[in-house]
Amino acid sequence: MLKLTPAERSALRAEAHGLSPVVMIGESGLTESVMKEIAASLDAHGLIKVRVFGDDREARVGMYEQISAELDAAPVQHIGKLLVLYRPKKEVAKERSSKSGKGMREVTIVKASASGTKKPSVTKVMIKGNERVTAGGNIKRAKPRQTSSKKTSLNK
What we know:
alpha+beta, Translation Initiation Factor IF3, 2 domains, 29% helix, elongated
């Protein structure tokens, strides 16, 4: 189980205040699938709230301690049926392609509606390395490099 100083715990409680519960524990209790979901949420967010639907306070405290011990998470706060847990996010190194700026890449284009009252349109488009997306959401090819007419006549 991860240990926190009182100052760290206080800061995490303040940060968790605006969060909504991401995992709900129902009447079947703390199952393997619920533990997997809590672990995935901790990996993604670091600080999460868990809501327990059950009236037995001792069972909630037991679940809180079990989650903290099994997932190596720090218990931050337990108020009523809400449990707040913290575990530092795992840093995942994103792999980059060896070629920078070449090849196809996926771009999401969001265009506002013409009237402004409807939802914006969202499209995912594959663009080539020599293309770019303008501020208006249009795809333009990069202009070919300009060459000097003097240099081309000298090389001939």
